[in-house]
Amino acid sequence: KYGVGSIVIHDSMFFQNPRWLEEWIDKYPRRANKVWPYWAAGRADTVRQWPDLFVALLKETNWNMVSIGFESGSDRVLKILNKECTEADNYFAIDLLNRTADEMEAEGKQAPVFWSNIMLGIPGERREDAFKTLRMLKYMKRVFPSISFYAPYPGSALGYQLIAEGKSKMSMENYHRFPDDEKVLGVDYAFYRDLLAGKYDAEVNAGLDALQAQRQHDFAAALIKA
Predict the structure, then answer these.
(1) Is 125 a member of any domain?
(2) Is 15 exposed, middle or buried (0-12, 13-18, 19+ CB in 10 A)?
(3) What CA–CA distance (Å, rounded) separates 17 from 107?
(4) Is residue 2 part of a domain?
């Protein structure tokens, strides 16, 4: 009647309550006029906690766009952000979706894809940390990268610290979410722009197999479109 083709579930707590998710798996395919593909968010640590539930959602409810705020591929940076997720959590979730998507594709079904939220330009981040983050993105078989430079919003310990130290470049006049704005004093944004343009691909590809290293992403465009 309304020409609905897909659904976006804007709920950061979507993959947090196993009982509710089991009910969703049971009721959505049975009660919906059509099992529309949908975008919804999860966390790498809870995917690792409930992997069977994650796979069931992918296969049975048409969760075809999995948004996860991986943020970084470096434990150092994840700790700076107080993310409460680890590199191991991130790679567990990536491996599980890679494997499940391969199985679904082999069965002639649409494979789910990551919407991967990434931050760069985090104070304290080293070049090797940034290389690890892009390396993690290239490790994903199916991904829409959504990249932005770190913004020191109030509400987080790091954000408050940078504001108190006078290092935030954000003000009431430019308090927005433009992903490619330079938001923190002392961050080498030229390096990050070169990184996204592919000038450090040799460093990023170190440790990847040949197939992973060949995966091409327009990371600079992902920054603009985040």
Answers:
(1) yes
(2) buried
(3) 29
(4) no
CATH assignment of the domain containing 88: 3.30.750.200
Number of domains in the chain: 1
Would 190 be classed as within a structural domain? Answer: yes
d(CA 186, CA 38): 40
Domain holding 18, by residue range, is 7-225
Instruction: Compute the distance between CA of residue 143 and CA of residue 94 in angstroms, rounded to an integer.
Output: 10
Q: What is the pLDDT of residues 178-216, one digit of tens each?
A: 788 899 999 999 999 999 999 999 999 998 998 888 887
Dist CA 179 CA 145 (whole Å): 12
83-141 pLDDT, tens per residue?
A: 999 999 999 999 999 999 999 999 999 999 999 999 999 999 999 999 999 999 999 99
